[in-house]
Amino acid sequence: MKRPIKRIVVTLVVLGLIVAAAGRYFQHGNGQAASFRTAQVTRGKLLVSISATGTVEPEEVIDVGAQVLGRILSFGKDAGGTTVDYGSVVEEGTVLAHIDDSLYLTEVAQAEAQVQSAKAGLEHAEAELEQMKANLHQVSRDWERAQKLGPSEALAQVSYDAYKSAYEIAKANVAMGEAAILQARAAIAQAEASLRRAQQNLGYCTIKSPVKGVIIDRRVNIGQTVVASLNAPSLFLLAKDLTRMQVWVAVNEADIGKIRPGQPVTFTVDAFPGETFQGEVRKVRLNGSMTQSVVIYTVEITTDNSDGRLLPYLTANVLFELDRRSDVFLAPNAALRWNPSRGQIAPEFREAFDNRSQSPSGAAGDVANRGVVWAVQSRYVRPVPLRVGLTDDVMTEVEGEGLTEGLVVVTALQTGSPRQAGSETETTNPFAPKLPPRPGGGRGGPPR
Predict the structure, then answer these.
(1) I need a surface site. Which of 102, 105, 293, 356 has the fewest CB within 10 A?
(2) Cα angle at 390 between 389 and 391, to 5 degrees?
């Protein structure tokens, strides 16, 4: 008899505990033990932007190279009179370096000698032509007399033919002399072209700055031999104007459609923390590249650098401004996403909530074009219908008749005792046993 009675007592105790726990659970479901995480509707500015990373680049960079072979003998002087080096400011035509020109001086001397030889050949050909013309004049007079006499007893046929032949040869010699003159003049032109080429190569031994700018890289040292083959060796990297800089930004294909020329941009660099620089989109390069299965496009941004603070190749954290709003109501996105249970809604709004829930496009928290936030009303919440606008993924532009600045709206639900209202949201099982709190620690957790 004792064993059945014991079983009945244990069963009744367990059922009593279950009923008590269920009662607490359903009482909490009616909103009497619930606490809410809240935020306020504010009025202010909203900036919608795209973030990306880029590199500060000079607006125009010129790679100064060498077109001849030789050894670097010396460097030139910059605008301040010091030896050309990194950061030197140079003017157009400033000598940057001298290459050993001994071989090219020899080539110039040989070319000059060839020009003199060709000119002498021309004079010789002209003298021979004059001689041939004189001979032609003589034989032409003899041939005229022979023609007057003709083959007769006074002039034998052989003599007649000899005069004619001499005249034809003299005339042909004159034509050959004139051709020799043309050939000699062509030889002079060829020799002069060779001389100009040799002089040009000699001039290439002096490396000059093509534009006014700043040297941002010196790639050779004195005594180093440069070899010009198919590609000209690079000696200096010259930035034409550092008062105007560019930022080359990598933008992925999902955002590139929102970028347009003339769009305002702000960016920061680690060299100047806390300072924001202004820029403008100049162009979007069309030669996209594939990076980890994502197409990346390069966007060029121009910015003013009159103070010279921005240095080449700094990393820039860029924000592309897509749209901006001023003096609008702003609600946290979490408030637009949060949905209450029916028991948490104030009784006078539950019927409207039921009708909204039955509507195909009227679910609570729908923020496509219309939305709702839930304002705290005593221990319940009440809906505040609104229309949504732009969002920056944290705050959203909202407008509606029931909105006021400072309106307290719910962003999340928190359970537990009031003293735990600041803790993270958690879901508890009413039937699970609860461990007593330890000194200095959380519920059932180790001491802190």
Answers:
(1) 293
(2) 125
